[in-house]
Structure to design on (340 residues):
């Protein structure tokens, strides 16, 4: 058998699969099911300062193109109740809390509350495409200065490693990753769902209760791969700091895990695949990855991690813009000391 273990932010994972924060993971039972199903790492659904009930239905709609649109509205019990039930490990797997807020001050309060729970890391959801309702403002991770301000607010109040979860709905995701890392993030999670909507031609209205939502599932995998590759190329060429990338976006098999690891991912989230199948998809995909590695002659994940980047980074040079601009704007916004 191949060695599928992963070292990530001081955690040793049994395999590179992750239950990502998203449409699952709100309740303890889902975390337990994912751990039993073989996930290497568990991320909770994003928690906010105060409880959120979520949006009216429909909140989740399969699409004919292959994927799922959702606008859940970040339903969660709030940080006070979350603190009563959170455990840093479930079923022998590490559990990372995901947090979301509408301002740096709220993020600061959440960071202090979560820090007291002793988590192995904290994911910061800067990228839910429908968190603001049917007419949301720009997302934090669509602006490098706002991204830096948010990450800095957290890093100044905790020493726990911070994972910045980014949106794909930007023209240059590298600029945003640069700002997050410069402000103190220890890892990047890429990507959240793609902004989307669909229309019911019989009722002549959007199909989601919230009107707009986010698209996940197999339809977005090539798009997500490109975003992850962009970040990995920038890291390989020294344009931005090196850091682990937790990829997500349509992975549903062992070959999909291999695809994301080939473009530089350290670990890979599988969310919609769990919804469409069951929690056993983690163990199944890990077994498929193991078989693929043995057929290729790979003994460890590091033997092929980033191999596709060799095709993309050969002649890459770091431009003064947009990376330099991102760092400059991050500095103006205020930052924590970069973690080395």
């Amino acid at each position: 058998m191949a060695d599928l273990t992963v070292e990530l932010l001081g955690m040793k994972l049994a395999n590179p699969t992750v239950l990502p924060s998203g449409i699952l993971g709100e309740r303890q039972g889902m975390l337990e099911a994912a751990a039993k199903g073989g996930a290497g790492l568990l991320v909770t659904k994003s928690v906010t300062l105060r409880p959120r009930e979520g949006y009216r239905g429909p909140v989740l709609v399969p699409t004919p193109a292959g994927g799922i649109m959702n606008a859940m509205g970040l339903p969660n019990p709030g940080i006070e109740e979350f603190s009563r039930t959170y455990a840093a490990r479930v079923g022998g797997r590490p559990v990372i809390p995901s947090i979301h807020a509408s301002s740096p001050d709220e993020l600061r309060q959440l960071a202090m509350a979560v820090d007291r729970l002793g988590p192995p890391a904290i994911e910061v959801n800067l990228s839910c495409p429908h968190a603001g309702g049917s007419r949301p403002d720009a997302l934090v991770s669509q602006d490098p200065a706002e991204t830096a301000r948010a990450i800095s607010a957290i890093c100044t109040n905790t020493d726990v490693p911070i994972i910045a979860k980014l949106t794909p709905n930007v023209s240059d995701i590298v600029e945003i990753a640069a700002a997050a890392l410069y402000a103190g993030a220890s890892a990047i999670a890429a990507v959240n769902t793609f902004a989307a909507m669909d229309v019911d031609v019989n009722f002549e209205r959007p199909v989601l209760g919230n009107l707009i939502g986010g698209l996940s599932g197999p339809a977005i995998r090539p798009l997500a791969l490109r975003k992850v590759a962009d970040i990995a190329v920038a890291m390989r060429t020294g344009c931005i700091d090196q850091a682990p990338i937790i990829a997500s976006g349509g992975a549903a098999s062992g070959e999909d895990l291999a695809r994301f690891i080939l473009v530089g991912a350290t670990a890979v989230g599988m969310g919609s695949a769990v919804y469409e199948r069951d929690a056993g998809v983690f163990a199944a995909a890990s077994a498929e990855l193991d078989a693929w590695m043995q057929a290729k002659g790979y003994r460890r994940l590091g033997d092929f991690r980033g191999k596709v980047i060799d095709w993309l980074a050969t002649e890459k040079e770091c431009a003064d813009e947009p990376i330099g601009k991102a760092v400059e704007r991050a500095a103006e916004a205020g930052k924590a000391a970069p973690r080395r």
